[in-house]
Amino acid sequence: MRRVLVTRPEPGASETAARLVEMGFEPLVLPLTETVPLHPALSTGSVDAVAVTSPNAIRHAPQSIFDALRGKPVFAVGRRTGDAARAAGLNVVDDEAGDAERLATRIDAAFTAPAHATVLCGRVRRDVLETRLLEAGHRPRLIEIYDTLPLTPTDDEVQACLGDHPVDHVLVYSANGAVRLSSLLERPVLQHCLHGACFYCLSSRIAGALRVEAGLEVAVADFPSEDSLLALLPALRG
pLDDT (tens digit, 9 = 90+) per residue, 204-219? Predict the structure, then answer.
């Protein structure tokens, strides 16, 4: 059975592991980051649209945020984020963007500037969404819902997770996680297990943040979604 290392934070890591089991793989869960809530409050002000950049922005948001934004049109970065927002009672009108650039484009196409866009996001992020909205003449207001903190597993924890057998595939979901993984790849315990593994990245930007030794294979999903990422795996099964 092919072994797949999952590096994303919980609870997403366990959700991915369950999908991998259904696909016939053996998942190995080793989160390299964790998300923690920031307990924000929604200040008063006009809200024409809501942008949600991650399921974590829903998972860690207080109920007061949902109550204040109920009924407002919500633009989610992807389907999983959209599903989480719907489950929280929000009015999701678009969840097909895939990344921050396209999310800004879709909001701009739906509203005449200046529109007031409330953005539910993480503290650790690129500034692409707000920058693109500002450039288009809109007025984004950021609400940082959660923070992303690094996790540094010990050699014993890595050994307990990976065992003595090689890992066939590695899933990398964020640039932050790619940087953490790159630092861990310098350890002998990981070099042994991951030598010959294929690294699957959610985007080219994430792949660019991953530093692997020459000769190791890196592949990038056609679209920045987990479905596209996991779709790369079956072709390598056997």
Answer: 999 999 987 766 799 9
